[in-house]
Amino acid sequence: MGHTWTSDRGGTGPVLLLLHPGGTDSRAMEPLADALSGYRVVLADRAGHGRTADVEGPWHLADAAAEMAVVIETLGVGPVHVFGWSDGALVGLRLALSRPDLVRTLVHGGAPFDVTGWYPGVLDGVPPQFMADAYAEVSPDGAAHWAEVTEKSRALHETEPAFGNRELAELAVPVLLLYGDDDEVRIDHVTAALHVLPDAELAVVPRATHGLIVEKPALVAALLRDFHVADKTDGVAPRRRDPQVRA
């Protein structure tokens, strides 16, 4: 595993690791990072993305999660809050399952739990040119490597994610499921997972798409802060969280 480009933006408060979508890099998380106060924000470019060189062989979520575990351990800041969007959410989920000692909470945004959770056609076609241009701006592998990166991403998404109910039921950290109401993930797929996860909350943002993190970063930041409030109430009339219903 090579060197992972990391930016510790500083700030006071708990550490928050932002995990970027696929096909892009941590620059996509900057609008959200700018909207966050009260956190020590950390950004990282995964292997083959942004300012981090690619690695030999195919991509797998387990390898990306192990890479982020090294980032956290190298900074000496674990456990941390994790916010992942799209592929970043899948990496965060695998990290929370494999290394719960490093993850305090997880925001799983804009991503399914199984490949069947994407709407049909979402993963078809080639990425838009602006993504190739952004890659060429910073990649140490050069613009020509973009073709290999997109092929690795395509191959990854043929079989991953593949999180089953048994794994989701064993997740040891609180999770916020975050989506736009016009996202690329089926909401019925999300609500099915909501009832399997031991400690999960759901936020569906109106008039928002798979680009929620850049469309409404201030609202996302507010939802994040609310998610992290200590000693939250279950409300005046809980049903799913009613201890008698759970029993």
Summarize the structure.
By secondary structure, this protein is α/β, with parallel strands linked by helices.
How large, in whole angstroms, is the Cα Rg?
17 Å
- What is the makeup of the main sheet? 7 strands, mixed
Secondary-structure element series:
EEHEHEHEHHHEHEHHH
How many strand units?
7
The amount of beta strand, in percent, is: 15-25%
Query: Helical segment tally?
Result: 10
Name of the level-1 CATH class:
Alpha Beta
Major beta sheet, strand line-up: 1-3-2-4-5-6-7
Which runs of at least 5 residues are low in confidence (pLDDT < 50)? Answer: none
The CATH superfamily name is Alpha/Beta hydrolase fold, catalytic domain
The chain-level mean pLDDT equals: 95
What is the CATH topology assignment?
Rossmann fold
Question: What is the helix content?
Answer: 25-40%
Q: State the end-to-end distance.
A: 45 Å
Given helix and strand content, the structural type is: alpha/beta
Q: How many domains, in number, for the residues?
A: 1
